[in-house]
Specification:
Shape: globular
Low-confidence stretches: 1-7
Helix content: 25-40%
Largest sheet: 7 strands, mixed
Mean pLDDT: 95
CATH topology of the largest domain: FAD/NAD(P)-binding domain
Structural class: alpha/beta
CATH architecture of the largest domain: 3-Layer(bba) Sandwich
Oligomer: single chain
Number of helices: 13
Distance between the termini: 48 Å
CATH class of the largest domain: Alpha Beta
Strand content: 15-25%
Length: 456
Amino acid sequence: MKRNMKLDSYDFDFFVIGAGSGGVRASRIAANLGARVAVAEERYYGGTCVNVGCVPKKLYSYAAHYKDDFEDSRGFGWESSDARFDWGVLKKNKDIEINRLRSAYHSLLEKSGVSIFESRARLVGPNEIQVGDKIFSARHILLAVGGWPYVPDFGGSEHAITSNEVFAMQSAPKSIAIWGGGYIAVEFASFFARLGVDTTLIYRGSKLLRGFDEDIRDIITEELAQGINLILENSIYEIINKNNRLELLLESGYRIEVEQIVAATGRRPLTQDLGLETTAVELDDKGAIKVDASFCTAEPSIYAVGDAINRVALTPVALMEGQWVAKCLFGKTADVVSYENIPTAVFCHPNVATCGYSEEQARSLGLAFDVYESRFRQLKHTLSGRQELSYIKLLVNLTDDRVIGAHFVAPDAGELMQGVAVAMNAGATKRIFDATLGIHPTLAEEFVTLREKRTS
């Protein structure tokens, strides 16, 4: 990427469309490096993650965990028979926190000297952006417009809501169907079921979390079947509204009735009506913006990051990409963006966390490796009596003993995987894991006490 200095012939050095995670990070970094920066946001600061994604989802997951905690506490001598959940209180307090975060994002932009436009922006050329009735010019433009839930079009599909609308619900339905098998579907089914809603999860596949390690998929599919009506290898053919109840006709001919249905059937880049036709920017067959290794589009002045491109749709990845673009354009050359060993978590119950290769990915690459694994109940459940399973798995490369894959199913697995990801990015070998003393008794010590290789 060629570094360009500011040119006064443009209104701005850098114009960012979208104030989500990637857009805000890129704007702040560029402004702090001396660029004249503007950002346009038509909806809400913080993007999907802050408003209808990671943050509210994790808050609802926290709320759901208390059901388990209250039940577990009985085995430790606690009485909690008067515990009662109030959806309205959760929503009110969630809204307060989300509004605080939105304000914080706006304040960060202001303090960095970024010009803010609270309106829709469209491209009207390779270096021009229309905001309202005004047109601005910019040396560089960044598209950080994110993604949006996708609902297939079929009979009655208009009755389905998406993850976006869940967080606006004033009260919980008595029954709900979640349609999908990815991380959003699994997370939502988990917290609805624990918050007292009769929950059905419908998925076309034979097991949940496609793309994850197959052992993880097996365990989560089995765990979610406890307390959730799990309908696999099936899909919805039609939704019929019957006096404010929804009848779901499945492809198998099976029918169920629920008060609400959430379509967690994927997300698409939010690239419509951006004025891309006035530029050379190209889209792939899913509507994602095509970029090169430097996040530059086919139009040399226009870049794109985050969920709008077909890479890895995770908030920390968007942050990394946005920062990289800003540093390369207005600062010194940044470190190479790496998509290896990206840790991620699914906040279902129990949590899933992974880093590095799944067993199937490693085999497809022709790698030779050993597998170490352990299935166990954590110490807590010897008194709680709950049968929740925990699982850990490490893949170890035979050529250099490096840990190339780590997979964990356990409460707070995401918190525990972060440190493992640091070790993996530092090149830690299995020998180093083995030489590290565990903290006893903890779940995390399982990472350094695995000794037996899987033999089949």
